[in-house]
Design goal:
heterodimer, A: 130 residues, OB fold (Dihydrolipoamide Acetyltransferase, E2P), five-stranded mixed β-barrel, 10 strands, 52% strand, B: 401 residues, alpha/beta, Peroxisomal Thiolase, Chain A, domain 1, nine-stranded mixed β-sheet, two-stranded antiparallel sheet, binds zinc ion
Chain lengths: 130, 401
């Protein structure tokens, strides 16, 4: 088998890569992980919704010490995608406070994380400045 | 004193730092025996033991009993991240409050000297040979570092940056100056792991861990223990005048977890649960933030101290930068914060922290603060937070007599 797989199941690849969230059908709370029930209202029905691919940088840090295998420094961040907060790295820009600013507009971008023994590529996502 | 009031009768904190010649039980035993002595009671008086330790392999309460007194009382081994110590204390207080026991003992201990970066667990595993989605995110490879960061320095850095984005006024230098304050405070605390004053230049030019937190702006991994004996007003009335004089009233004892908020599962929300705990604590104690003479808050990182000024309502919402800039949180200011040196300088032996901060406040309320005594301190607040999250807030008051 070859081809591509997303790094996480809430990343949808293809011609228009984007993230999806599980939205509570009762209260609208959004989650990226597999759910047992809604943390806000206890309802257990969800529908998948597309998350906007652009947003505003709400918080970031430039990480200089990380687990083995992770290249440093890198920029970890929280991006506000039109009301839905998303965790991701800021990529395709130098990891320093001159290039990464709170409030800046960013958009989703994908990159190759690695290739397994079968030749399958894992594709991750981050956000890059617009 | 009302019969059902809760009092700290005795309390002790070991020297924080490196204790290569002592194991976890040694440190816990040292704190326990000193707290019992301070209280003027023995293990035979205790009705419950609540003990916290995260890195030692479990069962700390029973291991401790085997060294200091196996009296057969119930042991609650508790774990609540960095709020473990406060959780142990809260457990002992609940048992006394419920009327099941007259005396409760709470202990927190950790051996952490030399431990590296915390919170990066699970990432050491190599990428799979064949990508297979696993876990709740269907991940084919470790996500930490690839999809943001879940390490403590990175999480708390973002929490400070988020505050800056919301209200403005923050900068690398501002956060570094908060650290400068706590390192300066620690010079008066002989029990602190680090007691050296650090200049702003030194702090800003030290090793960057997670911008804007450099190494001295992060809590110091170290060894240490703290223990407290609690009782009720009815029992205290039967004790000696000296025990009554030195007893410290627990006017509020609150533990909260993080209620659901948008984004709280993306970046931990340390604000709402702290604000909730503080609100409940002020109400329970019948005091307001203006009444506080000193505060020991959870400065696990310099960025965290700033947001907790706001969360503990030491300032108006959004006013944390102005509060710090006014000098109010220095030891000679209006509301001294972390006169012990805080976690950045005194150190952060995780499970001990939530009792050690209460020891610090008690010391001042008893007028036994030595060189760093805050004069005429009558009311103090101690706050801890553990990611996950749990928040403990205790308000303490000097005995009326
Ligand atoms: Zn819901």
């Amino acid at each position: 088998m070859s081809g591509q797989v997303p790094l996480v199941d809430y990343l949808v690849l293809g011609s228009d890569p984007h993230l999806i969230a599980h939205e509570c059908t009762s209260c609208g709370a959004r989650f990226f992980d597999r759910r047992n029930a809604c943390a806000n209202c206890e309802n257990d029905e969800f529908t998948d919704v597309d998350i906007p691919t652009t947003g505003e940088l709400r918080a970031f840090t430039i990480v200089s010490m990380a687990a083995p295998g992770i290249e440093v420094p890198f920029v970890a961040s929280v991006v506000d995608c039109d009301g839905t907060s998303v965790r991701g790295n800021i990529i395709n820009t130098p990891p320093d406070p001159d290039h990464v600013k709170l409030g800046m507009k960013v958009k989703l971008a994908t990159y190759k994380v690695g290739t397994d023994d079968q030749g399958t590529e894992a594709i991750g996502f981050g956000f890059e400045p617009i | 004193m009302a019969s059902d009031d809760i009092w700290i009768l005795g309390i002790h904190m070991t020297k924080f730092g490196k204790h290569p010649d002592k194991d976890t039980v040694d440190l816990a035993a040292e704190a326990t025996r000193a707290a019992l002595k301070d209280a003027g009671v023995t293990m035979k008086d205790m009705g419950i033991l609540a003990a916290g330790n995260l890195m030692g392999g479990g069962g700390i309460g029973q291991m401790l009993q085997k060294q200091v007194g196996q009296t057969g009382i119930p042991v609650y081994n508790v774990a609540n991240a960095c709020a473990t110590g406060a959780t142990a204390l809260r457990t002992a207080i609940m048992a006394v409050k419920a009327g099941e026991v007259k005396y409760g003992l709470a202990v927190g201990v950790e051996k952490l000297a030399g431990a590296g970066l915390l919170g990066a667990g699970g990432a050491a595993k190599k990428d799979g040979v064949t990508y297979e989605p696993s876990g709740r995110f269907g991940a084919v490879a470790p996500t930490d570092g690839r999809i943001g960061t879940q390490t403590m320095p990175g999480v708390f850095a973002q929490i400070g940056m988020e505050y800056g984005h919301k209200y403005g006024g923050t900068s690398f230098e501002l956060f570094a100056r908060i650290s400068e304050k706590n390192h300066a405070h620690s010079t008066l605390n002989p029990l602190a792991a680090y007691t050296k004053k650090m200049s702003l230049d030194q702090i800003m030019n030290d090793v960057m861990i997670a911008y804007p937190n450099t190494r001295p702006m992060c809590s110091a991994n170290c060894d240490g223990a703290a223990a407290a004996v609690v009782t009720n007003g009815e029992t205290l009335k039967t004790l000696s005048p000296d025990q009554q004089r030195r007893a410290i009233k627990v006017s509020a004892s609150i533990l909260t977890t993080d209620p659901w908020q948008e984004a709280c599962q993306v970046l931990p929300d340390v604000n709402t649960l702290t604000r909730n705990a503080a609100t409940q604590a002020y109400e329970q104690a019948g005091v307001s933030p203006e009444d506080l003479d000193l505060v020991e808050l959870h400065d696990c990182f310099a960025t965290a101290e700033l947001v907790h000024y706001d969360n503990l309502m030491l300032c108006e919402p959004g006013g944390a930068v102005d509060l710090f800039e006014s000098g109010a949180t220095w030891r000679d200011g209006r509301i001294p914060v972390n006169v012990s040196g805080g976690l950045e300088s005194k150190g952060h032996p995780i499970s001990a922290t939530g009792i050690a901060n209460i020891w610090e406040v008690c010391n001042h309320l008893r007028g036994e603060g030595g060189d760093r005594q805050i004069e005429n301190a009558k009311v103090g607040l101690a706050h801890v937070i553990g990611l996950g999250s749990a928040c403990g807030v205790h308000i303490l008051e000097k005995a009326a007599a």
